[in-house]
Amino acid sequence: MTSAQRPSSTPSSPTPTATSVSGAAGDPTTVEGTTEVLPSVVQKVTAYAAREIPGVVALGGSASRAVGAVRQTLTGNTENTAGVRVELADQQARIGLDVEIEYGVGARELVRALRRHVPKAVEEIAGVTVVELNIVITDVHLPGADTDADGGAAPPPPPASL
Description:
Layout: E1 15-22, E2 28-35, H1 39-51, E3 56-59, H2 62-75, E4 84-89, E5 92-102, H3 107-126, E6 129-141
Parallel strand pairs: 5-6
Antiparallel strand pairs: 1-2, 3-5, 4-5
Helix pairs in contact: 1-3
């Protein structure tokens, strides 16, 4: 997928809603108003829901994760939505999701799980319908590729003995 094909974060138009509340005498009263769900809300829900799927190691590519880590250090904001792009229009979302997966996890099964879980979470929590979910697998996390206590790359595993 090229950058021109990827969704961008654009605000949605407010949706007029009517909410029923009880009046003083128990009579239902209708309160008119608008409700707007911002793309950042859909991004957060998407990021959290994607991380709930076993086999998803991280969101975004290595560059976007590095930028997210710097942003977190500078701002203290722990809500990292790197790797999630949202385009909202008329309470419908087109979502781009970049994921790093665990080695040994089947990509097809993981993508199916993401396509089931993420739209459901977005609809239930944000009230927005996901009409498109584009998933890019950016990397595979290999066993032993963790970082050491100093934040540097861990040494490679010893060679197998013959």
